[in-house]
Amino acid sequence: MVDSEKVLQSIIEIATCPVCYTRLNVSSALCVNGHAVCSDCDDNLSQCPICSASFSQEKHTILSQIIASLPSICSHKGCSLLTMDLEYHEKWCGYRPTNCVRCSWSGQAKELKTHVTNNHQLASTNIERTCFLFQGNINRSYARVQFGQVFWEKTMSNSKLKTFSIQLIWVPNGEIEEDVFQMKVEFTSKEKSYVANTKIKFVPKDSADTENSLIFHTDILKHYEESNILTYKLYLTKE
């Protein structure tokens, strides 16, 4: 009996560039003896790396159609999933490399939840926090585990720019989560309160300080501080 998965795996390996080991694409070049390289490597080669023959200028429509119809293999170490939508899979893949912002640990995304739970104090949910708003630059990072997902909660105070920002970075653990998350921040004083919110987008890599952030000018927040201490609550909900 033919093992169709092994056959497909063999075809995918054949459809791999012998120079850079990436998938051949529809613009791949063939030499006159039939050896193929990807279009990127073809731009830097004057002859075939296998047999030293010249490259053919003919179009190989059938080969291009076969390559286009093949699934892709996840590039993350430890994951061998075949998928027709590589970009979507690798966005959620639990084998995607990541690192801890609290220590030197690095590993796979699916291991991050266990690491932060066992090694770091987690950010409490929906509990008041305090920050010394007007005492120089302050950067704090906490791991927040909620809805089975891991978020990095970062607070940054910049005395030069007179800003205070709160950022959530979402690190999926391999389970596809289509729900939309929303962050809400509430500043309170004895007499009044101020609420701001934003949707949390998926951020697969290190993000800029403005991604998934709420940024406030301290001239506004000074109305909610007491003795230079700012009190606020951060809520994370699903829409």
UniProtKB/TrEMBL annotation:
GO terms for cellular component: cytoplasm. Residues 17-52 form the RING-type domain. Transmembrane segments: none annotated. Keywords: Metal-binding, Zinc, Zinc-finger. PROSITE patterns: ZF_RING_2. One of its GO terms (molecular function) is zinc ion binding. GO terms for biological process: proteasome-mediated ubiquitin-dependent protein catabolic process; protein ubiquitination. SUPFAM superfamilies: RING/U-box, TRAF domain-like. InterPro entries: SINA-like_animal (IPR004162), Sina-like_RING (IPR049548), Znf_RING (IPR001841), Znf_RING/FYVE/PHD (IPR013083). PANTHER family: E3 UBIQUITIN-PROTEIN LIGASE SIAH2, E3 UBIQUITIN-PROTEIN LIGASE SINA-RELATED. This is RING-type domain-containing protein. It comes from Homalodisca liturata.
